Amino acid sequence: SCVFLFAAAASVFFEKELINQVVMEGKSVLLSCEVSNANVPVTWKKDNKVVEEGERCVIRKKGPTHTLEIHKLLLEDAGEYCCISRGKKTELCNVVAEEGGTLSLCCELSKPGVFVQWRKNRLPIRASRKYDINQDGGLLQLHIKEVKPEDSGTYTCQAGETPVFNDITSHELSSELPPFFKKDLQSVEAEEGGSVSLSCQVSKPGLSVQWKKNKLPLRGGKKYQIRQDGCLQELLIEELKYEDSGSYTCQAGAAETTASVTVKGVGPQR
């Protein structure tokens, strides 16, 4: 099976970067940069400390353009100024992949040609027989082949090599499918005094199932023999009576299959 996930996770990058400047003491300076996404917030820092807006520091935003203006410059204003855009974190929905199948994870960049690194549980993924990595313009795809339980984990697509390119999309991958029935129960008819067998197949061995008659749980005993052999589930009803007629259900998790048993023979007037 193949599950596709698409997320318009716009990678943030700087269209116009800051430039170094030399300014006389007492004058003003204007630092300006432009980001690719006008809706993404930025943080101004000086020597790794956040710059707070005040009487001498004015921070403005107009569309994708961000400016920091410093008035009445002092000697202590000299330093390294940074405009940092971390973008928004877009979370993809959790997905479930069938064991043995192939799963495709996809995300889309706002600009082609940006360096991208796929990771599993924070460790880099390289293209191999297990992982097929494709890029078509801004569309990125990671194909995970022959999915196994050990492939479960958090998968991340990180665009960019610096904090500027810090848009990340990730999600959980689980290789365990919820229980389902590969073969359903079949309705049967039987003679009074005889026996009848109801059988079905679940998706994997070792699953816990519950047998019910007319929605009421059944317990194994002399009347009802409950058997399990790998994926095969069986309910054997002995010494049939008319009142054994009804609706029988085998339930595994949220999945269930139902069939009717009709007992023929002498019984109460219908």
UniProtKB/TrEMBL annotation:
GO annotations of cellular component type: cytoplasm
Cited Pfam families: I-set
Keywords: Cytoplasm, Disulfide bond, Phosphoprotein
UniProt subcellular location: Cytoplasm
Segments forming domain Ig-like: 64-174, 178-262
Keyword Disulfide bond: yes
Residues making up the signal peptide according to the UniProt record: none
TM annotation in the entry: none
Protein name: Ig-like domain-containing protein
Source organism (scientific name): Cynoglossus semilaevis
